[in-house]
Amino acid sequence: MKEEKIYIIGAGISGLIAALELERAGFRPVILEASDRIGGRMKTDKVDGFLLDHGFQVLNTAYPEAKKYLDFQALHLKTFDPGAVIFDQNDTYIISDPMRNPLKVVSMAFSKVGTFMDKVKMFSLTQELKNKSNQEIFAGENIPTHQYLKNYGFSDRIIENFFSPFFRGIFLEKHLNTSARMFEFVFKMFAQGHAAVPEKGMGEIPAMIREQLSETQIYFNHPVKEVQGNAIHLDNGETLIADRVIIAVQPDRVMKQLQGQFGSPRKVWNLYFTLQRSFLARPMIGLLPGDHLVNNIVFMDDVSEAYANGDRSLLSVTVLEADMDQKTLISQVQQELSKISGVKADYFKFLKLYEISYALPHVDDMKYEIAPTACKITDQVFLAGDYLLNGSINAAMTSGRTAAQAIIHSYMPTH
């Protein structure tokens, strides 16, 4: 084993992958984690026998990096049925498989959601994107998704009823201003793979990466105050001298000179309720088009029974904007749930609210990958994190691997 002192700040997905790649190259990195557990933004709590992910998240089985680092079988992945349940005013209908096989969607429901030409365009877009490499997608035009959908010729009806509520829940912003590069990538991933969760929650993903580490030390409750050159100043007053540092958190938190360089991250409110039983009764996401407080809902035990305790169903609710106090938010969500389901509002028993102030990074120029040299900011300091590329599990893994490669390369003799 090599004896160089390599420190990684942050035990999220990027930091864990960086450690794994460094280990494979013969290094013994040390991870400094501010909290008391691994996973970063990917965590699962156990509350009253229910499994609560911090924010509604899914793993797409088509992600190239996930296939490299995760054993899908060992995670006992539980997949969602492709499509969505649409709650449109007084009507509820299902569109199955709109991205995987649009022309097979022959039910009348699609005509309520969109037009026949929308179906044809959905099919042609699917074929186009399957033939495009991920690198080509991210080299494409950087225009807002809503403009891209209009330019492609989709009707206002399908944009309003399907694309908007579906992709708002992924981009965590209401107006689909996110780059069309990200839309194309996500659309392609959904056309090729399945949305899934590990049987026992999203926290199983970082746990699986950690299990692959044998030479890495992780110090919990070790918040870093500042990185200056190769010196890491901890909150507890200690200073560590490193040969190399990977900052696997947004770097303005620990490098004063980078403050103000990053836009505001995307926020989300994730509320959990229990109910006697699911009114969706299928492993599908429910979408609320139009001007609702709630963007999407999922009964998590419809997807994986392990999420609930067997007596009641577990409902995850995503809210994108909530300018109100917690009590009002819970009450208004219960009222909306009652309206779409016909179930009395007070039957939705509130369990927990996560107000997630950093749910997704703000990224203007989305990329699929970067050269190892691009994540190096000094001879000793390297960066990792999905904010360098795009807000996704795939990007978090890519950036961790790239930062590790940059360090490994930095030790190679130059001729």
Automatic annotation (TrEMBL):
GO molecular function, one term: oxidoreductase activity
TM regions (residue ranges): none
Position of the signal peptide: none
Entries under Pfam families matching the protein: Amino_oxidase
InterPro entries: Amino_oxidase (IPR002937), FAD/NAD-bd_sf (IPR036188)
Positions of the Amine oxidase domain: 13-408
Gene3D superfamilies linked to this entry: FAD/NAD(P)-binding domain (3.50.50.60)
Source taxon at top rank: Bacteria
PANTHER family for the chain: AMINE OXIDASE
Protein name as it appears in the record: FAD-dependent oxidoreductase
Organism name: Algoriphagus formosus
